[in-house]
Specification:
Elements lengths: L2 E9 L2 E7 L4 E4 L6 H7 L4 E4 L5 H10 L17 H11 L7 E2 H7 L6 H9 L12 E2 L12 H10 L2
Parallel strand pairs: 1-4, 5-6
Antiparallel strand pairs: 1-2, 2-3
Enzyme class: transferase
GO molecular function: methylated-DNA-[protein]-cysteine S-methyltransferase activity
EC number: 2.1.1.63
Length: 161
């Protein structure tokens, strides 16, 4: 059975569950969500509490919430369909402090008619903030869904300005 090593970290007045494999970060949870959330993404994995493996990620998340652009350097170990992985890769190329639309991501991955499918893939992103789905907005620049909640999305976008 595959293992995920998780820890509960306090950042920005919230508790986040983060989890890693031996190859990299696999999960960043929604604020104040429990282990149930991680189990939705990794139902067959054994969860092992381990703060040591996640220490550098925890430190980077705290630095991020102090306004530092330090999340790009975190190695991730996330898996999905080829389409999902192409979307997640494109998200990591959206620069800190900017936003893009679902359509722009669809164009970036060479699937210009797939903006709605991009939204679905973004909703399956297991690594909030590090794979910056909060930077994706609807074409009218209004709020769109975010697993961490719209208040958190607004907070992250304001933090990056």
């Amino acid at each position: 059975m595959d293992r995920l090593y998780y820890d509960v970290v306090s950042v920005a007045d919230a508790e986040l569950i983060i989890a890693s494999t031996d190859q990299g970060l696999a999960f960043v949870g929604s604020p104040n969500a429990g282990l149930e959330e991680i189990q939705k993404f990794y139902p067959t994995y054994e969860l092992v509490q381990d703060s040591g493996l996640n220490k550098s990620v925890s430190q980077r998340l705290n630095s991020y919430f102090q306004g530092q652009n330090v999340l790009e350097e975190i190695q991730c170990d996330i898996h999905g369909t080829d389409f999902q992985e192409s979307v997640w890769s494109a998200l990591r190329n959206v620069p800190y402090g900017t936003t893009q639309t679902y359509q722009q991501i669809a164009d970036a991955i060479g699937k210009p008619k797939a903006a709605r499918a991009v939204g679905t893939a973004i909703g399956r992103n297991p690594v909030l903030m590090v794979v910056p789905c909060h930077r994706i907005v609807s074409k009218n620049k209004g709020g769109s869904g975010y697993r961490g909640g719209l208040e958190m999305k607004k907070r992250l976008l304001e933090l990056e300005r």
